[in-house]
């Protein structure tokens, strides 16, 4: 089926993009719930049963144990990404291939994507591969990374060097490829688990922000009138709420789930800008010829938003989210780095979550003595990873839109 002839002149003036309209799906016969939605709901039901079995009934799961509420929220977030991002690309290999070809033509986007993919893989596998070091071994303290060396006077004893000693310097060894801390703990597990924490921050916060921002923005654009005004006022309020202050209100009395509270606060108070962006984009699209034609063929409002408006705002949404993620990751790291005296017992405590390992806490560990020497690598390596992750997400956000923007024919 082709668009009505009354729209042909407008269509000629505004070339179609490949997502604009599928005329086979423009009728009102589209299912209320897509396959991706059914997949997500089914998986969410399984996760809900597992969470209830462990945290409500108090039973342990057969393959995994001691999963925290944040772990379940992270699993639900990953499920949402698989259902609404990965699954559609798998079902449309031609579109995925088109994106991939254009992405490869942008070296900056390709390299940043490769870094992000590696970061995601390490973050997911880290809890399975390593656990947080707990023992103290001063005879293994201050061991340098492979390829580097440190003067033996900085070791516990001159003879405690694990690697080779030459000219009064201890050289790194593969036993501790990234060196050890001042208490003899291997640095590698701290970095891997820190990547997992950063991934949890990025995925969970994005999963909270994106559906809220998109839902509010689309509803405001399509409903208009008083609904639009109320929703945009709510978005403005969310942008003015100081998320850090809200988090500090809960931080004083919450010792166990600080990271969970941090993600909930930042995820649920940072959607306002995204909602305004989606609303503005959707307003520009709702009067386009292909949307009018979809309405004329009997498509419901839900189908118009889902099939025609939502696909066309994917690019600015991706760009916006990939630019916000670095800010959230560095905020978590900064909070973990800050240490204050508790007003209750006078103990020095971190603003972050002391029950998890993060790059911020590792940097703090490396500077606890008032500087970075002699174990400078304890602060420098996680610091470099944090900066690299921020740059990769920021660069991906700037280049991803250009790489996946559909090309139009004049």
From TrEMBL:
One Gene Ontology biological process: protein transport
Region Disordered: start-end pairs: 1-20
Cross-referenced PROSITE patterns: ABC_TM1 (PS50928)
A cellular-component GO term for this protein: plasma membrane
Gene3D superfamilies xref list: MetI-like (1.10.3720.10)
Similarity comment: Belongs to the binding-protein-dependent transport system permease family.
UniProt name for this protein: ABC transporter permease
Species assigned in the record: Halorubellus litoreus
Upper lineage: Archaea, Methanobacteriati, Methanobacteriota, Stenosarchaea group, Halobacteria
């Amino acid at each position: 089926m082709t668009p009505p002839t009354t729209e042909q002149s407008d269509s000629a003036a505004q070339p179609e993009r490949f997502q604009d309209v599928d005329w086979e799906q423009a009728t009102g016969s589209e299912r209320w719930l897509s396959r991706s939605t059914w997949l997500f709901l089914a998986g969410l039901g399984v996760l809900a049963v597992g969470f209830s079995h462990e945290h409500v009934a108090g039973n342990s799961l057969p393959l995994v144990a001691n999963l925290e509420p944040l772990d379940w929220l992270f699993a639900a977030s990953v499920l949402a990404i698989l259902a609404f991002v990965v699954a559609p690309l798998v079902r449309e290999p031609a579109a995925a291939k088109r994106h991939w070809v254009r992405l490869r033509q942008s070296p900056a986007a390709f390299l940043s994507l490769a870094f992000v993919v590696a970061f995601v893989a390490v973050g997911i596998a880290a809890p399975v591969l390593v656990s947080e070091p707990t023992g103290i071994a001063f005879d293994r303290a201050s061991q340098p990374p492979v390829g580097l060396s440190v003067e033996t006077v900085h070791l516990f004893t001159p003879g405690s060097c694990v690697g080779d000693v030459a000219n009064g310097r201890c050289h790194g060894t593969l036993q501790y490829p990234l060196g050890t801390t001042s208490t003899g703990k291997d640095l590698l597990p701290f970095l891997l688990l820190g990547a997992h924490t950063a991934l949890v921050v990025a995925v969970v916060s994005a999963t909270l922000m994106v559906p809220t921002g998109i839902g509010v923005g689309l509803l405001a654009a399509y409903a208009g009138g008083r609904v639009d005004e109320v929703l945009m006022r709510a978005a403005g309020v969310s942008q003015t709420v100081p998320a850090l202050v809200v988090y500090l209100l809960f931080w004083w009395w919450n010792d166990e789930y600080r990271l969970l509270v941090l993600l909930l606060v930042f995820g649920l108070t940072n959607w306002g800008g995204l909602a305004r962006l989606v609303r503005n984009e959707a307003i520009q699209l709702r009067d386009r010829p292909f949307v009018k034609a979809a309405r004329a063929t009997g498509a419901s409002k839900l189908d118009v938003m889902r099939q025609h408006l939502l696909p066309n705002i994917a690019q600015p949404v991706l760009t916006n989210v990939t630019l916000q993620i670095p800010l959230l990751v560095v905020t978590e790291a900064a909070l973990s780095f800050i240490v204050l005296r508790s007003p209750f017992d006078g103990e020095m405590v971190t603003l972050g979550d002391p029950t998890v390992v993060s790059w911020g806490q590792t940097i703090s560990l490396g500077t606890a003595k008032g500087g970075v020497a002699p174990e400078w690598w304890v602060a420098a390596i996680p610091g470099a990873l944090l900066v690299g992750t921020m740059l990769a997400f920021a660069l991906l956000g700037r280049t991803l839109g250009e790489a996946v923007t559909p090309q139009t024919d004049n």
